[in-house]
Design a protein that fits this description.
With 215 residues, this protein is mostly helical. The protein has a domain of 75 residues. It has 6 helices and no strands. Helix 1 packs parallel to helix 2. The longest helix is centred in the first third of the chain and has 40 residues. It is rod-shaped. This is PRC1 regulator.
């Protein structure tokens, strides 16, 4: 009986020692995770048993590890979106420390930044498509063949491949204005020529039937 009791005591003391070691490791890991996640220190219930304390600490470590993993995964996803948008819009990448775990505030700012870039992309895409349509119609009307690399990119290139940089949008607007100016000039010349023809018809007393066939 004494031997059995001694063995039971030894097992309990061994378990207690393992639990205390686990508690110390969990506390250390919790401190690290709280610093990385920019959280306040974790407070344990002093009245709980060693077994319950170890379980609570271990559970909290798992929760914080999951939070850390989720934040890093979201950061990676946001960076991928940011890179794609920056390639299309020719803008600078969002400035964030990739060597540490992002705070909730950092992620929120990053989300809003990516959302604003998406909005800007859609606005520029709509402007590009609208201007491209008008440019193609004007070129056909003016019998103008695209003779620069930019004009060929606008008219011929896949819309999704066109770089929506601020400079390209400005260049697109300038091209549209140039073509509109040329059309307005041609229309003015045509109007002047028509007026001269009418004046000559009147002077030469050309019959109405002949005028209509010429018109």
């Amino acid at each position: 009986l004494q031997s059995l009791l001694d063995m039971m005591v030894a097992e309990e003391e061994s378990l207690k020692e393992r639990l205390l070691k686990s508690i110390a490791l969990c506390r250390k890991e919790l401190d690290t995770l709280c610093r990385e996640l920019q959280l306040g220190p974790f407070e344990t219930e002093e009245e709980s048993t060693i077994l319950q304390m170890e379980k609570n600490l271990r559970t909290h470590v798992e929760v914080l590890q999951k939070q850390k993993q989720d934040r890093k995964q979201e950061l990676k996803a946001l960076q991928e979106q940011d890179r794609d948008l920056c390639d299309i819009l020719c803008t600078a990448l969002f400035s964030i420390d990739t060597g540490s775990v992002p705070s909730l505030e950092d992620l929120d700012r990053y989300r809003r930044h990516v959302a604003s870039l998406n909005t800007l992309k859609e606005q520029r895409r709509e402007e590009f498509v609208s201007n491209k349509r008008q440019i193609i119609l004007l070129m056909e009307e003016l019998d103008h063949t695209p003779d620069t690399s930019f004009e060929r990119d606008v008219v011929c290139e896949d819309e999704e491949a066109f770089c929506l940089s601020k400079d390209n949008i400005v260049a697109l607007q300038n091209l549209l204005q140039q073509l509109e100016g040329r059309r307005a000039l041609n229309e003015a010349v045509c109007a002047e020529l028509r007026a001269r023809i009418v004046a000559l018809w009147e002077r030469l007393q050309i019959p109405q039937e002949e005028r209509e066939s010429s018109a």
